Fold each of these.
Amino acid sequence: MSKSLNNSEKINIIVEKLNEMYDIRFFENKDPYRVLIRTILSQRTRDANTDQATRNLFNKYKDIHGIVDADIEDVEKLIKPAGFFKVKAGRIKEVSTILLDQYGGKVPEDMKELLKLPGVGRKTANCVLVFAFEKPAIPVDTHVHRISNRWGIVNTNTPEKTEEELMKVVPKDLWILLNDLMVQFGQTICKPIHPQCEICNLTEFCDYYKNEL
């Protein structure tokens, strides 16, 4: 079946199937500043750790003003569950100060402006656009990059190139859904090591399954 489909048709069917398997998980709080800070905390750690660190931080400091004025050692202690806490605390303080000084305390809704913030790459910026502002974008993390290549939707070596190629083949009305559905699929079935192909209902669309197994 999948051999006769082009990539746009293939991704449409895949997203439809994933949407039947998973519920979209939007952040508890869509405040753009909290989404930005949570995304910074999420780098190189698990969701559970990110959630704990985010709760710790915002339970004590309710807004950007509190975090800018906070002692960095206290921020480090609060976000320790997220790992790399010294680097992340410094980044959070720096970004927060810039937002307050240059943007009136508001997180910009524009990719170009988001990328001017220190340590904010395309994945983080896209997460803010999708999860805070519900603007069409495709955040590409390790799950999205890996799975897109396994499916054969793209043939890329970097997340940046994966994003570029996905934007060509994924209908824009699916962009907001794509990241969270693929992340859940990557966490539960299409894992980095030992993907559970035996229980996957997308193998007919998967080049990895056809070629590697």
Amino acid sequence: MFAAEEIIKENTREISKPKTAPVLNRVLDFLSSVRFGVVLLCILVALAMVGMLVIQQNVNGFDAYYASLTPAEKTVYGYLKLFDIYHSWYFNLLLLVLSLNIVLASIDRFPSAWSYISRPKLDASRKWLLGQKQNAIVEMHGASEKEIVEKISHVFKSHGLKPIVSEKKNQLFVFGESGKWNRLGAYIVHVALLTLFLGHFVALQTGFDADVRMMPGQTTNEIQMIEFNLDKQERYVVSLPFTINCTDIEQKLIDPKGSIGINNTLDWRTRIEIDDPQYGKTVADVSLNKPFAYRGYRFFQASAITVGSARNMTLEVAPQTGGEPLKLNLARNGSANLADGTKIDYEAFFPDFILNGSQPDTRSAEYNNPAVKLNITTPDGEKKSAYAFGRKMPDNIPVGAPVAGYKWRLTEFEKSPLAHVLSIKYDPFNGAFVAWYLGGFGLIGALMFVFFISHRRIWALIEKTDAGNFQVILGGHTNRNEQGLEDKFEKLKQNLTTN
């Protein structure tokens, strides 16, 4: 007997013992939980802030920043990969897990959100309606049931609520709603976030950074790839599938008489011509706020070689035998002709002219003694070299002596750097465009849609009283902006009570 009782007790324990969910289900529930996703997002934002506060190794000025750190800081930051955090394994892993959380959470919760659109709640009990935060009972006298339905429908429409009339268990309902698509706002945010993450990941994995130095008249099909390793930058040459020809560079200065340094610069502009065997020639103008995109390559203004040069020059050409001097405009790498057939070609510009032995050179990058070297071709075909100085030079100095029957002088010139450096970012799949434009702006739009629009629902239950009149029981619900619904509900109630 006792043995039987023990068996019964044991079976009872087994029956009453709660069953635990399978391990896989528990893991999926954890991965899809909103709390877990919020924690991951906060960590991701924190790491992104670290990437902004700690100068990254591919940013200009990193060398000086790295040198200012203590040996301990260099060791710790380097071990944690804080100098290149966006390429670190844990940052990419975090993006992957957060993306998985967003996908699983969306799959888990989307059916219930979609039900608000596909199967709206058209009816409700009197008790449920009066239990809503916005509720009221309106007495309707001297009107038929049909007239009351028509009036409620008209009032709902006037307040932007689409009315639907239904009947259930001999009870008549009028249901109105607005902003129902806001129930899917969270999933639009999810799509924008996933687009942002995917574009960022693709851009990092498939793209690269490079530099190319551009001087007017220079043609190249090579760029310098940059590989960063803390304070060391390794550069190696890579061929392009097209040729870049620099036709002009221009620097807009705040003070035209000042230096060509960064502090006196409004804009840098580089005009290039791309010669592509597959697509022909393309002309582009790259400036500070106007990058140029071509076949996955994006050209940006990066810096300038601030050795003084000139973009356009005005020369004073005075006949050696006397007579009125002539004004002559000459562009860099350009040429001009005099009336007697003399041809002038630009060769070089020296901001601070000096003779280094017998060769012309510049003492500094500043415009202390500007001069331009010219190639002169006389009408009979003889070729000579001449120098035009900004300062007036004595006739007995060889470099300032008349050449080809003329005295040459540089009167004006437009300041310009020796060369520009273009930064090239290669992104074959336009990951950056997808991330920042579709993902970034899409996320901003989605958040505005979520927070500035709400799903408002109002029900009206029409009941006949014992006295033969009608009561309209109103109830309202919204997923956000309760104050806005309260104002609308009060106006709607007032419209129903007025004849």
Amino acid sequence: MQIAPSVLAADLGDLRGALDLCARGDADLIHVDVMDGHFVPNLSFGPPVIEGIDRHTEQPLDIHLMVERPEELMDKYLAFNPHWVSVHFEATTHLDRLINLIKDSGVGAGVALNPATPIEVLSDILGTLDFVLIMSVNPGFAGQPFVRYSLDKVRRLKRLIEERGLHTKIEIDGGVAGRNLEEVRDSGVDVAVVGSGIFGVEDPLAELRDLRARAGDQS
């Protein structure tokens, strides 16, 4: 399992320091949350900030769009050539069109699902997705408690992917930390987004290194 630190949980006055920490800890991805104050009750990074993040990291970007009508600014996010971009099932009407737009740009395309949205809504489009992002908190704020039934969603999704012979990855975001890392990994998650579980501890670098080691330990 890979670890993607969420820089939303870092000291936003020192994003360069957070990115340097992620590089020293050999993070697999940099998770960047984009919030518009409409789809979720908060504001966060937009294209100018992401441009700065992209300029100061060699780690691939994982851009999570928690915005209404993500298609309206999609070209700006794709211009950063991120590794992955995810849009919410609940936020756009023409999901198939948007996923194809992302994939045609050469970027990995994913769909995020809020906790109460069942995985079955992706039945018809699942084969075209590079990944599915399961929200294990209600999106909008860092530091929320883990929604436990999200792991059942992961297990159901994993079975569906395997039954269809797909290569779709599963990402989880929200409330993941050292205390539940193995349970998350063993449920079938491929990429764990960790925010406060890294940046909210006394020694974030040591915690990131420990999480990466434990994420790959199947013993």
